[in-house]
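My main concern about presentation is that the manuscript never shows what a single data entry looks like. In essence, backbone conformation is discretised, so a fold becomes a row of integers matching the chain in length. An entry of this sort, consisting of the sequence and the corresponding backbone structure tokens, reads as follows:
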Amino acid sequence: MEFYRKKTAVVEAFQWAGGPEPIEDPVWMAKAIAEGKIRFINAGMVMKIQTSFGVVTAYAGEWIVRDPKGNLLPHDEESFKEQYVAIEPGDPGCYKDF
């Protein structure tokens, strides 16, 4: 039997507060909204994200992650904290290739 380690990647992420107005959303989020990849329902408290896997749902308070390929995926608080740790620009492995 062989063993494998999950490859890691630097991602961009923000915690979505809810609502369709991109007041504090990153530029890439506003762009996805403008391109129609994201739509809102239930008075803006539910986000539908078009991905290569199909449509996924995000709820207010969840983290929206953008990977190096530009894919957007929601994570609840627990899942996000299990998989990601904050890094600072200039940290080893931190690169800006988005």
Observations:
- The chain has a mean pLDDT of 85.
- The chain has one domain: 12-83.
- The first strand starts at residue 12 and ends at 15.
- The first helix runs from residue 27 to 34.
